[in-house]
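Q: Hi! First time doing this. I have a protein sequence and I read that you can turn it into a structure. Is that right? Here it is:
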Amino acid sequence: MSGMTLAKLEPYLWIDKPEELQTLATRLKREHILAIDTESNSLYAYRERVCLVQISTTERDYLIDSLAIQDMEPLRPIFADDQIEKVFHAAEYDLICLRRDFGFEFSNLFDTMLAARIAGWQRFGLGDILQAEFGILLDKRFQRADWGQRPLPKALKDYARLDSHYLIRLRHRLRQELEEKGRWELALEDFRRLCKSGEVNSEPTEADICRVNGGGELPPRKYTVLKALCQYRDRLARQMDRPLFKVIGDKTLLAIAEACPTNLEELESAPGMSRGQIKRYGEGLLSAVQAGLNAPLAHLERSPRPDSAFLKRLDVLRAWRKETARQMGVESDVVLPRDLLHALAETGPTEKEALANLLRDVPWRLNQFGDELLKLMRESHKQL
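A: Yes, that's right. Below is the predicted 3D structure, encoded as structure tokens:
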């Protein structure tokens, strides 16, 4: 990052006491626009937590230590206030984390990544945008930093404040461009949809624990072994407070399930197994293999195959979406997000009322593309 640029910035305020947060919340309630980012420790803990919340006004940057402050309740009204615009970059993950850890609800959002994509920008990662628009070069090393460490090094604090510092200025540039291109209403409907982004259970489910790429290709008995291995790894990860992949990698577990080793010597040949892992986990892994070999067969639940009518409509819609996106100079999902694409393919509405009901949350798209979509659905019905 640019030291010269940092020297020109006002000092940020570090907030790590409840009374400081309360004072800050009172101050923020008087603002009409805020920029926000979060940092979590997903690469360093079994159950990730929001470790830092960055909030910028037009005048000051604040770094809130959400590990030191147990109760973030003073910020709840701000995130829900529809009179205060909250600006994020790639907001979805931040919103999931804030809702999961603090129970926040959201209104009046602006997502600069979504806005950049809708405007047709070719590069929309925050690092690329900061460099192109403001001449700021972020140090990519910090993207995988341990945000749960305390005290937090100054270099990490300096990096974190830049994630929110420029967002309000960027928001103004993007809104102007969206209005000039006639896409501001399109952006607004995506921002409104963003406020309702789905909740995530902080407690991993069995499906989460046993999700290993390639596991579904195993025969039932070996899949049962894999499931036992995954459950063993999960117990270890909980005890160690480490992410699953930092205990034993997925490829290694899959290889062990395929080989079903019966002794440490056979286990050593599994790709990715280090001597340290053999020493620490070898006996436990062998026990898990035996448990899987002796357990009732486990079956991977598979989604039913879509019917031919759905697949036909999906192909037609994808082709239309791709061509429309090309004409607009955007990526395909800007024209029609995946959930709406699949809903249309599933129901195949041929009447205006049915289509309007399906697209009720995206009125710009309904107005812009409704007639074309109805024509596509009616033609696809004739061909079935």
